Amino acid sequence: MLIDSHCHLDWYEDLDQILAGAHAAGVESLLAIGIGDGPETMQRALEIAHTNPRVWASAGIHPQEAAHATAEALAKLARLAADPKCIAVGEIGLDYYHAENPDIPTQKQAFTAQMQIAAAARKPIIIHCRTSELATPQAKEKFGPADAWEDALALIAEHWTPHGLGGIMHCFSGTPDHGRRSIDAGFYLSFAGNLTYPKAQPIRDAAAQAPADRILVETDAPFLAPIPLRGQRNEPAFVTHTAAALAALRGISPDALAALTTENFHRIFPTTA
Fold first, then answer.
1. Claim: this prediction has a pTM higher than 0.70
2. Which end of the chain is more exposed for a tag (fewer CB within 10 A), N or C?
3. What are the structural domains, with CATH classification, of the chain?
4. pLDDT of the residue at 131
5. Which residues lie closer than 8 Å to 268 by C-beta, 6 or more apart?
6. Model confidence pLDDT, tens digit, residues 96-112
7. 95 - beta bridge partners?
């Protein structure tokens, strides 16, 4: 049985069908990411989790929405994070990919504030870090030489690692070095459908090298459908394709990979076991 460690269930109008498909594919549990369309709707994942015992939730303000991380929004996040079905704060972090994203100080301020909320709630965090080197030309002009990975790891070292609560590098898209440094900071690496894409060799290298007790699989559904379904709407059932690819990279069977990643998920989120 597999666990989809990151999916956006509140995007689906046909959610019952999506959950039935996941169950039929052997997906045991799902972590629904509670970012909504911004802070006003970040409770939607938790609402879904409260109606389905196989679904857990997070809550957080995505870096693209960092300008809306007001005192009111952060207070709401703190209330959501206190709910037992909310097992993590996220996805939070830094994103220098789009020119329309908030400026760097605004993103850093929102990220730091949410790490403080997670620490107070004693919940792990789920990190979104979109690499600067892949940014659009307009974003490169706006953000300059700043590196999202270096900035994120520096903020984590200062504001998070001392708490010893760990977290997940969602849809890990960094280099093997980023992976090693993330693991040293107490994080798990969660691999999504882009692991299967032809140009993703650095991600595959990181996935092959990561310690067995620090890997997870996810869909990021409805985004990033894996090969052979790339271009379609993604859904939690498709995590089986990413899991099979990750198992092949590591030279183990899909069943062994499923057992391993499920054990890892329950270790970082012991209340889900």
1. yes
2. C
3. 2-272 (3.20.20.140)
4. 74
5. 124, 166, 167, 168, 188
6. 988 899 999 999 999 99
7. 130
